Amino acid sequence: MNINFSGYNENVVTFEIADSDIVMGTPVKMSSSATVMKCNDGDNMIGVAVNVRNGYAAVQLTGYIEMPTEETISVGYQTLSVNEKGKVEVNSSGREYLVTYVEQGIVGFIL
Known about the structure:
Number of strands: 10
Distance between the termini: 19 Å
Strand order of the largest sheet: 1-3-2-4-5
């Protein structure tokens, strides 16, 4: 890609983590007060863990993000969620995001 969307309106917040399988790049959802957990199949994510350390995760809540996908996803507004492998998929019950970049196995969108 000849242009870069990184840095656009990024907003990162620190949460406690509920499970130890959260690593950098993991899509997360709220699990309890001030605590996040890994998304399960069909879950709507609140954001993506961009750093994990000592029981805490820095979670990007807004801005541009690229994530793996196994589907062909079109650019424009799409309803997305996360599958059991932690990859983005189109899901009619997902949240709507602006997809700005698509490449084989990668989808870029605005959280």
